[in-house]
Design a protein that fits this description.
heterodimer, A: 126 residues, mainly beta, seven-stranded mixed sheet, B: mainly beta, six-stranded mixed sheet, three-stranded antiparallel sheet, globular
Chain lengths: 126, 106
C-alpha cells in the first residue's frame, strides 16, 4: 500500500535552515507529481510546493518563494524540502502528498492530493 | 492571488444532510477537490474533480460545482463524519485551499 513518511522536523531558530525528507513506497514514485503542504498549529491547510516527476516543473507558494526549494531523488523514492531563512510563521506540520490526475494529458487543474503522510513538525522559535 | 472561502462551521443533526460550500471567482470553471481531516489525523481525500469519489469513500458523500460555488454534500450524516473539511483548487500554477469548515454532528 502507499506509504509516505516525512522526517526532519525539529526546533530551529529564526533565520536558520532545515531539510525535510519524505520516503515513499508502495507506488511508482518516479511517475508522480509530489507536493508539500503545511498546517500551522490550530490553522488550516496551506499548499507549499509541488514538483513534476522529472523535476522540470516546480511551483511554490508566494509565502515561501525564494526561501524554500523542493527536490526529489527518484532512484531513492524520496522527496525533499530545503527550507532557508526560516521565520516564526513557518512553524507548522509539513505533509508530503502525492499530486495525482486520473486522466492522461491532464490539465493542471485536474490534479488532486490523494495520499498524505503523517507529517513532521517544524518549530521556528528562539 | 486566488482565494477560496468556506464557512467556519456547519452543524447538522445525525441522519440529516450537511452542505459545505466553497466560494471563489468563477470556481465553476475549475475543478474542486475536498479533504476531510479528523482531529490529530492527516487529511483524507473525499472528493475530486468536483463530483468523483475516491475508492472507499461512502456514497453519502457527493459534490457539485457551478458558478462561483462548489458544494460538498453529506447525506445521512453520521457521528464519524464530524471533522474539518477543506476545499482545494488550482489557479495560475498554484494550489489553493479554502480556510476549512468544522462540521459538527449534534
Amino acid at each position: 500500500q502507499v506509504q509516505l513518511v516525512e522526517s526532519g522536523g525539529v526546533l530551529v531558530k529564526p533565520g536558520g535552515s532545515l531539510r525535510l525528507s519524505c520516503a515513499a513506497s508502495g507506488f511508482s514514485f518516479s511517475d508522480y507529481y509530489m507536493s508539500w503542504i503545511r498546517q500551522a498549529p490550530g490553522k488550516g491547510l496551506e499548499w507549499v510546493s509541488y514538483m513534476s516527476p522529472s523535476g522540470r516543473t516546480r511551483s511554490y507558494a508566494d509565502s515561501v518563494k525564494g526561501r524554500f526549494t523542493i527536490s526529489r531523488d527518484n532512484a531513492r523514492n524520496s522527496l525533499f524540502l530545503q527550507m532557508n531563512s526560516l521565520r516564526a510563521e513557518d512553524t507548522a506540520i509539513y505533509y508530503c502528498a502525492t499530486r495525482t490526475c486520473s486522466n492522461t494529458n491532464c490539465h493542471p487543474m485536474e490534479y488532486f492530493f490523494d495520499y498524505w503522510g503523517q507529517g513532521t513538525l517544524v518549530t521556528v522559535s528562539s | 492571488s486566488y482565494e477560496l472561502t468556506q464557512p467556519p462551521s456547519v452543524s447538522v443533526s445525525p441522519g440529516q444532510t450537511a452542505s459545505i460550500t466553497c466560494s471563489g471567482d468563477k470556481l465553476g470553471d475549475k475543478y474542486t477537490s475536498w479533504y476531510q481531516q479528523r482531529p490529530g489525523q492527516s487529511p483524507v481525500l473525499v472528493m475530486y474533480q468536483d463530483t468523483k469519489r475516491p475508492s472507499g469513500i461512502p456514497e453519502r458523500f457527493s459534490g457539485s460545482n457551478s458558478g462561483n460555488t462548489a458544494t460538498l454534500t453529506i447525506s445521512g450524516t453520521q457521528a464519524l463524519d464530524e471533522a474539518d473539511y477543506y476545499c482545494q483548487a488550482w489557479d495560475s500554477s498554484t494550489e489553493v485551499f479554502g480556510g476549512g469548515t468544522k462540521l459538527t454532528v449534534l
